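User: Teach me something about this protein's shape.
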Amino acid sequence: MFACFILLLNFCLPAQGNFNLKFKNSTVYAGIEVGSKGVKMSILEVGKNAQKNGAFNILKDTSVNTDFISFSDKTFEATLNGLHSLYQSALQDYNIPAERVFSVISSGVKMQAEKDNKKSWISSLSDSFLVRIKEPTRKVEVIDPMAEARLSHLGIVPESRRYTTFLIDIGSGNTKGGYFPNGNTQVLKLFNLNWGTKSTANATESRSGDDKTVKNFHKQLSRVLAGAVDTEVVYAVNESGAYNMSDYIAFSGGIAWSVANLMYPELVENSVVPVTYSEMEKFNEMLVNNYEMLSDVAIVKTITDKSLDKVAIGAEIKRVNKVFDQKSLMAGTGLLLKIMRQFEGVYEKKQFYLVKNGQVGWISAYVNQEVSK
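Assistant: First, the predicted structure itself:
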């Protein structure tokens, strides 16, 4: 999740960036999230009964990579500047009233700060932000994994599969998810790991020493995944009881979005794509051995269907490669495969899905919760 944060407004088209709205009777939301990798602002159109019918339309995503969970003075300042600049953009570029902005710090940041004994960095960031914008009473909420996982499930998974789907959101700093075991959406069986795409990459880099080659990164990543990551994944999956209770395993988060687009560029318009474990293994091998084939130019050349929009496909692939470099893709895909492996049974095959717009569900569910208070 994966995570996000929000602003609700009575939409006035000319004053809100000239967005082309897709639905009737819709409302536009936006929000700012401080995540493990950086700061993100999302603007989203939500149609009537969106939670039931999935009437979502992403109007704009903007992010600033700041690597907050490195917890250095440099990344702290970069995160504070990113948070402030995106907040000002919401006010000035989209004319969003300040009282309708929700500022949130993700569970991945919370977990990593607790792990590294850096909880004070979160409060310092929040306090510094409020001083800079001169709004001392503004609320900057720190989301815990349980709340984030529950809201993600409610926002992403359709009602028809509400109680048969195990949702796993692989974030930058952590992985969270779960399922509703007893037909009660108030009670989520939580799945939680202290590993995400960025934290796995960071652990691998710290083992790599002075050898920064992809070959050495791959070797060290294998050791990271076979060590503490494997132990935690096996325990978390077994403890969740999800194998016996779930027919569908859905992955969301940045790595799910990126892998889905790179593996299935022709499905650029699809928000959810199916995938098998063997297909994921082959993609992982390509990341290491034929990464050049995953550039926007190389992928567009493979598109032979003339009905497909090659410009749109190329733009999306370029966006993926801007957000995730080769090593980040290797780390995130390795973690995804490690989790998938626990559900790749000999006698019972689960259906795996990659959710591209996981942040949409999180935003919509969060907004519904806040508005109803």
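Now, about its shape. The two ends are 23 Å apart (CA to CA). The domain at 156-358 is CATH 3.30.420 (Nucleotidyltransferase; domain 5). If you'd like, I can walk through any region in more detail.
User: That's plenty for now, thanks!
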